[in-house]
Amino acid sequence: SNVSFDPVSDSPKPLYIGAAVTRGKLNDQLTAPLVSKLVILGNSDFLSASNIRDEQLQYIAQVGSWLVGREPLMNVKQSPNFRRKVFIAQAHKSFLNKLFVIILPAMAFVITGFVWNTRR
């Protein structure tokens, strides 16, 4: 309730916040055309003429190269996807099956009952 700025633990403004999201597998040749990319900049002052620095210009150039699929221009190597098989013993399969089919739904039902009872 009493929020205030602490110069020791807080960063002074302006704060530049950005996020990048991908949907799909970037390194898979079969699904590469289906990959969606999104970049969000959380502060409109990020690109204002009074605040712009070389790091921000480089970031925007990197984001543009990433969005159009020119990763070699970014000088960042992508890590390859590795597929691994996990072998599970039959006894463990039985336990996992019981866990996901019976125990977890039962726990969710019990927690839902507690929440319903407290709000009733």
Structural key phrases:
2 helices, two-stranded antiparallel ribbon, 120 residues, single chain, flat
Task: Please describe what this structure looks like.
With 120 residues, the chain is of the alpha+beta class. 37% of the residues lie in helices and 10% in strands. It has two helices and two strands, in the order ββαα. It has helices spanning 54-67, 90-119, and strands at 18-23, 36-41. It has a two-stranded antiparallel sheet with strand order 1-2. The two termini are 28 Å apart.
Number of strands: 2
Cross-sheet strand order for the largest sheet: 1-2
User: Helix/strand/pairing class, anyone?
Assistant: alpha+beta
Q: Round the Cα radius of gyration to an integer and report it.
A: 24 Å
Shape: flat
Q: How much β-strand is present in the residues?
A: 5-15%
Instruction: Determine the fraction of residues in helical runs and give it as a percent range.
Output: 25-40%
Given the structure, what is the number of helices?
A: 2
How many angstroms separate the termini?
28 Å
Average residue pLDDT: 80
Secondary-structure element pattern, one letter each: EEHH
- Return residue spans where pLDDT drops below 50 for at least 5 consecutive residues: none
In this structure, how is the largest beta sheet organized? 2 strands, antiparallel
How would you summarize the topology of this molecule?
Layout: E1 18-23, E2 36-41, H1 54-67, H2 90-119
Antiparallel strand pairs: 1-2
